[in-house]
């Protein structure tokens, strides 16, 4: 039997699938109560819980009764009892509406029967309460509807809780909501808001409150790792080859933006973009296209860059008659390499980008609906269908190693239970991460439902280049009316110090200051922000650890944009373990499976008490959640529609 | 509980597949026979719809079955109530939609859809428009859908403005789209009508923004033809109006020659040409210069004897064409042997055609940006070709040297089309020569040593008396040469001429020099027999001179010939 611990492994997920074929049962061990470790994604309240967890200091536990399980000829290899990989966690809440009536429960939608009541009581004017509840509801909906009717082009879904309360409060200004009492400034803001509403409807800005975010917690799927899939990257190929793709759905990233000369601009990367770009002169267009065409087949023209093999890509770009603008676009947004990277690396990266372009749309990237956390889950699901077993909430206390063979025989989990067999990790380089919830897109466009990749070149020397992925609500990762923004960079300092300069340049964090400049008003407001560091394991070498020979080292997420690194590693480890087997063979079609009704193999029963509930949950989501969403249309409404049908857990 | 898997063997799978295919085939065959039997028996009922539907869902290109369905619908139209009919038509539309999903490029399906809507009691064309947009979103180059869209737009009375925006959107996603560009060329004149009311042309301001759009495409991908073709349309101008461009009278020859701007057939009633001499209609017989020319830019009539009186101080000749809407008159004064009245090529800027008479500044700036592009893309043939056209539009004579250079580039970059470029260059050189001749007010045209491969614009040389074609690469003297009714001396030595079919009925032709050509048979010289004035013929260096008895046969053929040089 195989046993996998390590909470931070995507590769492992991919290996899982194989096992069912040869009836080797795979046991994946997660300390946490969720799949995917650092690859996971959370609902908003799930993320809050995760934040709490990672703020806590872990107390050193003592070796206790489980020592009895160690047999003769065995020794133990003690592991860190806590996963200290997440560091420097900081949370900022910029929302003035945050402070809510103490009587009011901040509860998730669907967590109680009071959904509508809750909705009504939030900031609702008191005198309305005297009327019948149905009446109240209508009133409120009326105001919402009225406000919405001003804003053409905005989804009319009743799910959209547009906060019109301030204007409501003005109409009934004898009464004030509790939250407004506490925040007089907000009241002013509300007043201003109403004025704006009267003069220019187009200016209307929906206000999202913290309580709404909490209530709509389940609309959020916040990834710890922020990555995209290259349309011709190894993950996409693997998803297709292994048929795991049937469990996932994707949206094309719609635009690639960059921050240049103090403003957010669209990067023209495809032929259509270049054609449509208003920023480039026709000659620039030609030069850019010419260079990109060269990059696609750069191997065939070695003479073009022979002199630059040992020099940096940015030096090479300087010789290509490209304007500074174009060179920056290519370096930071297309190749996405550092100033110091060599020419061949830059060319290879550009080629990779371009090859992925157009396979599924106008940008080279795909984003999985419901977040990147879906991907490990999909592999888990496929694995589970064929008998893989997952242990959630079981950390690894120590390894039991056979003294003679130097093989790992078993593990002792955090509950002190002995379980046989498994793998391990460690690392030093850090990734800085931030997660923001904002109220509008970084760059206004015709559609509000766009996924954007924003590359921010280093603001100053020594600062890292920051990658931003802005997700819209139809990507099923945030509630309507908000955008979920992921910032990622290699750490120089800690997450807050690395990323907050970019956040303050691109976003507005001062919702309080009523007097906003014109430019300021164009920027998205940050409603909520989280900063943290996580380790980058991409450079971990197995040889640096003294490990039993049947223990394999899997890396956690790396800081890159794509997933190639992890896939490569998964395949490598898999072939070490099973040199003769195919990696992720295509899963058979349902009609090609014969159910012999024998029931589960005997090993499964060993762990039944631990796994049943978790595995069951995973299965249920496989069948119920995913199969309901049948289209990857752009229309957010469609997607939201199907989401509503997810049975509440 | 997880089922353990056993994969079926491939043989099992193959066998099952084979079985399924046979079953399908059998079903298809029986259903088809049933349909045909029904049609033959004239049973036009709903069962027929079901049967043909099953087949068409699998194979939408079965035209007979679509016809069968239409017959059924026409029949049911008599029997059913309007409500029943409406549901029937709605069902048909959703059926068609499923067919289109399977094959969005089936002629039969799209056509049937249009038919159904035209026969439907209350067609919803707006829905159809959305359907088109959806299909074009999947494949913006599906011309079947474009065709259908034009029908829908016409029926739904969608404004050209909206359609123009739609094409803009599609061009934005992918500008390699002939359909979309072409659609724009039809919409622009509707949305921005030309201020001078030229049919098919758009307002200059609109054209300027359009130039900008196309240039973006040209610079983004100069190897994409679709944008270049559209660009040439933009630079083009409206067709010249049909008119009578010249009237020529020869006293000596007792004939009258009428030239038109376009080839016409005046023998057809609608293009009837009426001659008035001194104000009185005169019945004459019109003929084209060459028997093979049914439509010709030149028509000739022999005047009845005594029409021209030498003593008369002047004769007034006038033609009415197209019921008198177009007229031209010419006066032959006493003592003059000939007279004409014409539009000159220089006045008309005739050879700037294909390109518009826009303000020269616009053309100049277009030329500049194309030259800029050529510097970046020296090997791009579309760019070189457009530069040539622009230079010709601006100043055909001034840019002659640059034009020749551009042609060299073109031939080097696209050797497969060398012959096309040679012909095109010949055309432009002849145009320039005509211009030069007209500026000099002469009737002599020198086209020697120009590498000509082709002769054109011969109708413009109707008055020319001397033409020099020496040292070119001509293979024939084409039938259009017969339009040069005034030609007296033709020098065509040092070419590759094998055939003289154009030297027919040229009344004034006296000397022909055909030294060093490839005339090999006596019958090739036969057309010359119809040229009554021919007295000198130079055939030195032609294979025909080797033929025994050639001289005697020739004197038989051309008895009036005085000098034969061999």
Automatic annotation (TrEMBL), chain A:
Main location group: cytoplasm
Cellular location(s): Cytoplasm, Cytosol
Sequence segments annotated as region (Disordered): 595-649
Record's protein name: Rab proteins geranylgeranyltransferase component A
Biological process per Gene Ontology, one example term: small GTPase-mediated signal transduction
Pfam families cross-referenced by the UniProt entry: GDI, RAE1_2_domI_C
Bias (Basic and acidic residues): 605-627
GO function terms (MF aspect): GDP-dissociation inhibitor activity; GTPase activator activity
Primary gene name: CHML
TrEMBL record, chain B:
Domain Rab geranylgeranyltransferase alpha subunit insert-domain: residue ranges: 244-345
UniProt cross-references to SUPFAM superfamilies, sorted A to Z: L domain-like (SSF52058), Protein prenylyltransferase (SSF48439), Rab geranylgeranyltransferase alpha-subunit, insert domain (SSF49594)
UniProt-listed GO biological process terms: prenylation
Record EC number: 2.5.1.60
Root EC class: transferase
Catalytic function, reaction form: geranylgeranyl diphosphate + L-cysteinyl-[protein] = S-geranylgeranyl-L-cysteinyl-[protein] + diphosphate
Annotated Gene Ontology cellular component terms: Rab-protein geranylgeranyltransferase complex
Domain of life: Eukaryota
Matching PROSITE patterns: LRR, PFTA
GO molecular function, one term: zinc ion binding
Keyword line: Leucine-rich repeat, Phosphoprotein, Prenyltransferase, Repeat, Transferase
Similarity comment text for this entry: Belongs to the protein prenyltransferase subunit alpha family.
Protein task: Catalyzes the transfer of a geranylgeranyl moiety from geranylgeranyl diphosphate to both cysteines of Rab proteins with the C-terminal sequence -XXCC, -XCXC and -CCXX, such as RAB1A, RAB3A, RAB5A and RAB7A.
Full protein name: Geranylgeranyl transferase type-2 subunit alpha
């Amino acid at each position: 039997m195989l046993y996998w611990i390590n909470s931070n492994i995507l590769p492992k997920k991919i290996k899982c699938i194989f096992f069912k074929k040869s009836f080797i049962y795979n046991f994946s061990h997660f300390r946490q109560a969720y799949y995917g470790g650092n690859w996971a994604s959370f609902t908003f309240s799930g993320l809050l819980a995760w934040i709490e967890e990672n703020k806590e200091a872990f107390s050193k536990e003592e070796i206790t009764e489980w020592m009895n399980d160690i047999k003769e000829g065995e020794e133990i290899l003690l592991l860190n009892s806590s996963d200290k990989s997440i560091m420097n966690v900081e949370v900022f809440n910029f929302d003035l509406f945050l402070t809510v009536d103490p009587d009011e429960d901040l509860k998730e939608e669907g967590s109680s029967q009071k959904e509508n009541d809750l909705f009504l009581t939030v900031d609702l004017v008191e005198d309305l309460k005297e009327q019948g509840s149905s009446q109240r509801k209508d009133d409120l909906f009326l105001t919402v509807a009225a406000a919405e009717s001003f804003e053409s082009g905005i989804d009319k879904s009743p799910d959209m809780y547009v906060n019109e309360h301030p204007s409501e409060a003005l109409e009934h200004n004898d009464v004030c909501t509790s939250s407004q009492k506490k925040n007089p400034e907000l009241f002013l803001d509300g007043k201003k808001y109403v004025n704006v509403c009267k003069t220019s409807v187009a200016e209307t800005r929906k206000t999202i409150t913290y309580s709404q975010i909490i209530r709509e917690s389940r609309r959020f799927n916040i990834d710890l790792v922020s990555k995209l899939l290259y349309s011709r990257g190894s993950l996409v190929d693997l998803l297709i080859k292994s048929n795991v793709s049937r469990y996932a759905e994707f949206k094309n990233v719609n635009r690639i933006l960059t921050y240049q000369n103090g403003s957010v601009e669209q990067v023209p990367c495809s032929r259509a973009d270049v054609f449509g770009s208003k920023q480039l002169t026709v000659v620039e267009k030609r030069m850019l296209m010419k260079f990109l065409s060269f990059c696609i087949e750069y191997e065939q023209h070695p003479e073009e860059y022979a002199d630059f093999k040992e020099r940096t890509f940015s030096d090479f770009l300087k010789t290509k008659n490209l304007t500074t603008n174009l060179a920056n676009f290519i370096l930071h947004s297309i190749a996405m390499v550092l100033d110091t990277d060599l020419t061949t690396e830059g060319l290879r990266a550009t080629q990779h980008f371009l090859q992925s372009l157009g396979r599924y749309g106008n940008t080279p990237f795909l984003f999985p609906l419901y977040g990147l956390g879906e991907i490990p889950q999909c592999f888990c699901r496929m694995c589970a269908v064929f008998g893989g077993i997952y242990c959630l909430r079981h950390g690894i206390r120590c390894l039991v190693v056979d003294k003679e063979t130097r093989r790992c025989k078993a593990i002792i989990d955090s509950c002190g239970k002995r379980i046989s067999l498994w793998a391990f990790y460690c690392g030093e380089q850090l990734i800085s991460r931030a997660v923001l919830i904002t109220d509008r897109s970084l760059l206004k466009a015709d559609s509000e439902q766009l996924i954007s990749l924003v590359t921010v070149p280093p603001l100053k020397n020594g600062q890292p280049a920051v990658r931003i992925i802005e997700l819209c609500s139809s990507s099923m990762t945030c509630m309507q009316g908000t955008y979920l923004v992921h910032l990622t960079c290699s750490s120089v300092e800690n997450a807050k110090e690395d990323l907050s300069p970019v956040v303050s340049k691109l976003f507005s964090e001062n919702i309080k200051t009523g007097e906003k400049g014109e430019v300021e008003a164009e920027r998205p407001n940050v409603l909520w922000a989280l900063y943290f560091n996580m380790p980058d394991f991409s450079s971990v070498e197995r040889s640096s650890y003294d490990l039993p020979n049947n223990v394999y080292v899997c890396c956690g997420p790396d800081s890159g944009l794509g997933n190639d690194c992890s896939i490569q590693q998964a395949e490598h480890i898999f072939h070490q373990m099973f040199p003769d087997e195919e990696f992720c063979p295509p899963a058979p079609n349902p009609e090609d499976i014969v159910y012999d009704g024998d029931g589960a193999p005997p090993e499964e029963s060993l762990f039944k008490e631990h796994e049943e509930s978790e595995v069951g949950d995973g299965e249920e989501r496989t069948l119920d959640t995913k199969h309901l969403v049948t289209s990857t249309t752009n229309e957010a409404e469609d997607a939201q529609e199907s989401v509503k049908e997810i049975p509440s857990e | 509980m997880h089922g353990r898997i056993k994969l079926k063997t491939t043989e099992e799978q193959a066998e099952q597949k084979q079985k399924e295919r046979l079953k399908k085939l059998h079903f298809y065959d029986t259903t088809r026979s049933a349909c045909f039997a029904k049609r033959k028996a004239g049973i036009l009922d709903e069962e027929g719809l079901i049967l043909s539907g099953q087949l068409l869902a699998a194979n939408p290109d079965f035209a007979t079955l679509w016809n069968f369905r239409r017959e059924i619908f026409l029949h049911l139209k008599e029997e059913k109530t309007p409500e029943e009919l409406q549901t029937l038509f709605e069902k048909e539309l959703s059926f068609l939609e499923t067919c289109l999903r399977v094959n969005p490029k089936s002629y039969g399906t799209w056509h049937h859809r249009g038919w159904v809507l035209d026969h439907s009691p209350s067609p919803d064309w707006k829905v159809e428009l959305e359907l088109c947009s959806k299909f074009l979103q999947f494949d913006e180059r599906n011309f079947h859908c474009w065709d259908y869209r034009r029908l829908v737009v016409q029926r739904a009375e969608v404004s050209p403005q909206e359609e123009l925006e739609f094409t803009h959107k599609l061009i934005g996603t992918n500008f390699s789209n002939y359909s979309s560009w072409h659609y724009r060329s039809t919409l622009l004149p509707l949305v921005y009508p030309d201020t001078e009311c030229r049919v098919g042309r758009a307002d200059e301001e609109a054209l300027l923004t359009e130039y900008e759009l196309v240039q973006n495409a040209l610079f983004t991908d100069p190897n994409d033809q679709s944008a270049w073709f559209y660009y040439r349309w933009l630079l083009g101008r409206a067709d010249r109006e049909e008119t009578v461009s010249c009237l020529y009278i020869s006293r000596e020859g007792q004939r009258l020659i009428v030239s038109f701007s376009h080839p016409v057939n005046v023998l057809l009633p609608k293009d009837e040409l009426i001659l008035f001499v001194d104000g009185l209609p005169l019945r004459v017989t019109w003929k084209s210069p060459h028997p093979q020319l049914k439509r010709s830019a030149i028509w000739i009539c022999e005047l009845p004897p005594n029409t021209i009186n030498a003593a008369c101080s002047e004769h007034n000749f006038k033609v009415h064409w197209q019921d008198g809407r177009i007229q031209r008159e010419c006066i032959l004064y006493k003592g003059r042997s000939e007279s004409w009245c014409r539009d000159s090529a220089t006045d008309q800027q005739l050879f700037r055609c294909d390109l518009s008479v826009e303000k020269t500044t616009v053309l100049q700036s277009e030329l500049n940006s194309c030259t800029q592009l050529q510097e970046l893309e020296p090997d791009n043939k579309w760019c070189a070709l457009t530069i040539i056209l622009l230079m010709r539009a601006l100043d055909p004579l001034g840019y002659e040297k640059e034009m020749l250079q551009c042609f060299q580039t073109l031939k080097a970059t696209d050797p497969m089309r060398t012959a096309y470029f040679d012909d095109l260059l010949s055309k432009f050189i002849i145009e320039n020569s005509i211009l030069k001749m007209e500026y000099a007010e002469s009737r002599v045209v020198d086209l020697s040593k120009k590498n000509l491969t082709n002769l054109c614009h011969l109708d413009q040389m109707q008055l020319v008396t001397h033409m020099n074609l020496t040292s070119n690469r001509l293979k024939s003297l084409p039938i259009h040469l017969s339009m040069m009714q005034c030609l007296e001396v033709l020098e065509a030595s040092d070419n590759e001429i094998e055939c003289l079919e154009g030297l027919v009925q040229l009344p004034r032709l006296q000397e022909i020099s055909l030294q060093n050509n490839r005339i090999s048979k006596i019958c090739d010289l036969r057309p010359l027999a119809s040229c009554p004035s021919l007295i000198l013929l130079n055939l030195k260096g032609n294979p025909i001179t080797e033929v025994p008895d050639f001289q005697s046969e020739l004197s038989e053929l051309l008895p009036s010939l005085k000098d034969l040089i061999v």
